[in-house]
Amino acid sequence: MKIYSEELKKKYGFEFKMRIGLNSGPVIVGSIGDDLRMDYTAIGDTTNLAARMESMAEPGTVLVSPITYKRVSQQFKFNPRGKVEVKGKKEPLDVYELVGQVDKSGAGLDRQIYSEMVGRDKELDKLELQVMKAINGEGSVINIIGEAGIGKSRLVSELRNSPLKKRVTLLEGRAISIGRNLSFHPIINLLKHWARIKDDDNTATAFGKLETAVRRACQEDTDEILPFVATLMGIKLSGRYAQSIEGIEGEALEKQILKHMKDLLIKATDLTPLVFVTEDLHWADTSSIELLESLFRLSETRRIVFVNVFRPHHKETGDRIIETLKERRTEYYVEISLQPLDEENSETLINNMLNIKGLYHGVKDKIIQRAGGNPFFIEEVVRSFIDEGAVVKKNGIFEVTDKIDTMTIPHTINDVLMARIDRLDENTRDLVKVASVIGRNFFYRIITEVAKTVDDIDSRLSYLKEIQLIRERSRMEELEYLFKHALAQEAAYESILFQKRKQLHLTVADSIEKVFNEKLHEFYGVLAFHYTQGEDEEKTEKYLIKAGEEALKSSASSEALHYFHEALNLYLKKYGDTADPEKVAMLEKNIAFAYFNRGQFIEAAEYFSKVLAFYGEIEIKLSVSGIFKLFLRFLYLLAGLYLPFLRWKKTPSSQDSEISYLAFQQGQCLAVIDINRFVIELMNHSKRLILFDISQLKKGVDYFCSVSSLFSYGGISPMATQNPPLVAT
Does the predicted TM-score (pTM) go above 0.85? Predict the structure, then answer.
């Protein structure tokens, strides 16, 4: 108001001043009046005292009550006005005049709290023992399981800071909350850290860094291993590396990626023991889980420790890994289940953070009871005391103030976090909410692009670090921030109104497109998520399809299935009966291949049939006309096989080649699930082997061999396999 008043005085020669009175406390809210004139207002002693403060204030000033002063004195400067008689109060009250905001620079050290790890000595010993065993040549798989805030990441942090780290190579990856359908994302995250690849590195730079890292570990085997690791990571290949994997796709590509990932780790363990850490695994994608399950067997023969960190009760991720390892009954499996701290350790944690004698047992007991032994809950309550000014640091020592009597301890972690977020000034609070939409981790370049309306972002980020709501780290030379705990990000995100949240998702997506335009293929899945949440159907469909295509390229068929199914459902919902059959067939074809790659041949055959029907290739039914048609096809094919000179050898169109390829893929499915239908469909589609030059049909030679082998096996055409084409595709 002061700034606005000065502007008016300069422009128009008069000032605009308000008198404001503030008080804090419980109020009664409700409707006052009748149907013709209705107001919704707050009444009670709290509002009455605020009105008294207002009436005592001079124009252009703000007066606050003692209760409000206690709550905000750490954030704002005040001049005491002394004791003032107030109508309706028996005793005079201390009244304070607002002067300005406290300078936050240099306040960080007074807000920092720290404690040694408490109550986890046995668990840390168990973890370090397995690492020591790996150093001595014996691997293991460790699951660290615990509820949110129980101390899983802290346990890993202790290992990270242990002297043992110098004797091993520590590889760390993390799944993200939106990552259930982001192909291999925690594995890619780990490999990027290992190769020091930045998110804004172009393809050539990223590939060069990966090649350097792989060559350091694999030496002469680099050229064989590198293309498949790069393919898993979604790094586009060129030159001889692209040629080395040309024609390898589907299930064959999946097997090759698994084999060469194993080879990479084997070679790496020849140099030094490995500790392979994956945090927040409960959010991982199915392809990552399947890859990890296969890699776990390395622990039986190599000096590698897999450390999986996750919350319990996630059926498709953590629970699946537990069941897999238990079914194998491997002696190399170790489980560390983190339980809540007992009361003694909870009190020790409080004392370690504050090192204060004035905090009486009643307050400590209430914290301990509410926290239920959750270390993160305890830490956040203690930080809220510092935020509120109930605990202040003077001369390097924490002291209790009289505000401690007015403090209430929330019932849940979420309530504690929201109370801390709500105490931030409006712009800083908005910045936190914007960051929460980006995710637990957010790059500086993205947050500055999204939060353009927030002023002085750097100082606000610094303040959030000081109050330990976020952390800063330099990731691969890129400045990145992350919420200190996933629960903080979740609480901030859930506090955003739905319409505002939608708009922020769209803004985040637009910013990612702008900042990472040169390597956007790495962000297709993320963009699909943000545009879905922002309800932009056109761009959602676009990026779902692109994400599915990238997933198929990297052999992440589970995620490809999800993306293509979502894209198809969205497209059909949008257009219904007016949907373009060609586009529907394209999506159904991709779904068919994704099912095929996963070995789900029943579903794959069904979708291949749908696509072939689009091309006019109708399945033959075993009716009278169908049997007659099949008999004619049989004679036609038999003549072509016995009498090669009758083959037309026409040049096939792209559509004919596509149909031949789809029929061959369908035939592979039917050979497994329904041999009778396999024979019928083979006859039905094999006419192209007579009409066209099969060397120019995609998979034409393979199809020819399938037909001729079938005839030879049945004793019908011993000449068939003696007349194969000379050119293979």
Answer: no
